[in-house]
Amino acid sequence: MQEPRPITVAIERTVDSTLDRYAQAWVRHGVDLATHFPGFLGAGWVRESRGSKRWHMLYRFEDAETLEAWERSPERQQWIASGAGFASEARVERRTGIEGWFDAPQGVVVDGDRVEIRPSASAPPVWKQMIVVWLAFFPMNVLVTFLLGLIPGFNELLLPLRLLISTVILTPVMVGVILPFITRLAAGWLHRGDRR
């Protein structure tokens, strides 16, 4: 069975700036509604500047099933309807899993209490992503396999057990250290030719 993957939804909304205080209350109410749904992991929002019509909102659920339950809920439908007179969706993006590693260092950036809004760039082509993952994974796999082979008796273990041990070691190292490092290193090549 596939492990559930958290999904972050980024929504750009156009909001009537003359109803600013009302819109703020409306957004807070929407976040409050979402917090009572199973799988909710957090939410936030920010305006580009005082009086700006563009607002950016983020929310995150633990998997597609809990996200869909929230998005189809009567509570959310009623909340959206209550803001229809002053807020409309301009753009919606959903991010999950490996694709987040390849995002350009742009877009909506949330780091603790710091929020930055910059123009969003498209993800690089899948073939470039595959090359970068391979360039990161192959040498690490060779290194870990070699080092584990130095442990007396390791090579006599059954193949599935050897693979289990090596992937338990490799996965957090790849996800937490190697892939973020190599994607930053290759960012110029990954996004070369991006016209957005």
UniProtKB/TrEMBL annotation:
Cited SUPFAM superfamilies: Dimeric alpha+beta barrel
Residue ranges annotated for the ABM domain, each copy included: 19-81
Gene3D superfamilies in the record: 3.30.70.100
Keyword match Membrane: yes
Alphabetized InterPro entries for the sequence: ABM_dom (IPR007138), ABM_predict (IPR038762), Dimeric_a/b-barrel (IPR011008)
Membrane-spanning segments: 131-151, 163-187
Entry superkingdom: Bacteria
One Pfam entry name: ABM
UniProt feature coiled coil, ranges: none
Alphabetical keyword list: Membrane, Transmembrane, Transmembrane helix
PANTHER family: SLR1162 PROTEIN (PTHR40057)
Name recorded for this polypeptide: ABM domain-containing protein
Species the sequence originates in: Agrococcus jenensis
